Amino acid sequence: MYPSFIERLSDLQLLLLFPVVACLVLTLLTVALRLANEKLHWLDYDSDIVDTATQNTMSGAYVVLGFVLALVMATASGIDDKVSQEAQSIRGLNRMLILDGSEPALKARQSLIDYAQSILRDEWPVLRQGHGSSLTSSALTGVFQNIDRINPQTPEAVAVFGRILDAADRVAQGRNDRILSVATTLPGMFYTVSLLSILGVIIICALRLIEATTLRVITLTVQLIMLTLMLGAIAIIDLPYLGDTRISAESLTTVYDALVAQDPILHQGED
Q1: Half-sphere exposure of residue 90, counting CA atoms within 13 Å on the CB side?
Q2: Exposure string (b/e) for 231-262, b if CB count within 10 Å is 16 or more?
Q3: How far apart are CA 120 and CA 212, in angstroms?
Q4: pLDDT one-digit tens code per residue, 99-133
Q5: Per residue in 154-173, pLDDT tens?
Q6: DSSP secondary structure letters along 132-143
Q7: Domain ranges of the chain
Q8: Distance in Å from the first CA to the final CA of the chain
Q9: Which of 4, 172, 176, 261 is most buried per CB count within 10 Å?
Q10: How many beta carbons lie within 10 A of that of residue 200, not counting itself?
Q11: CA 20 to CA 194: how far, in whole Å?
Q12: Nearest C-alpha neighbor of 122 from the set 107, 137, 143
């Protein structure tokens, strides 16, 4: 989905990556154009045309990147909500299994604890690769197999069993939504087009700096840094399992700890 070295970068490093590279390219390209123009005199320099091109490209880039930044922020917030909903669905299934109280239901509850542990231990670290864990899939299958062994005998037990099935379905759907959320990142074409567009901006800035003044250098450099910082922020938010600002598993961890803490009490009740 992205170069492997990006996985080792912090938020600050990701944020600075684009401006540093852009400024370096701008410097090299400006020096190359100035040297070439001094020796070959091949440019019929028109400052009005270059100024107009600079304003148009900067304005267009700010509008597009600003819109996309708002979009990915909304998407990231939605992923957080999905993780919280998944945690609540696990908590809800746990309550229904305890309410049933039969031996198969309590075995299914133990499988549910194992499943929650597998999410945190096996699946969460590999989500950044764009898929779930086969170990977690097997753990979820174990939950459903134990639920299938529940044999309600009374109308009340049948009603509870129906609610258990609904809760189990929500648990499975919550996992599917979380895994699919990994694929909600912006397509690679967006970053390709964005990088090519920024390269175009750099070329225009380099042309403008053929006739360089201190004020012009500072102005164009600051504008380029601001533009690439926006692209860096988009990359950080758009890749929710990378960097420091990543989607948190705290709600799932809290539910798992609560299930484990409750487990000895249930076994004492059986005794």
Answers
A1: 29
A2: bbbbbbbbbbbbbebebebebbeebbeebeee
A3: 55
A4: 988 899 999 999 999 999 999 999 988 877 767 89
A5: 888 899 999 999 999 999 99
A6: --HHHHHHHHHH
A7: 4-270
A8: 52
A9: 172
A10: 13
A11: 16
A12: 137
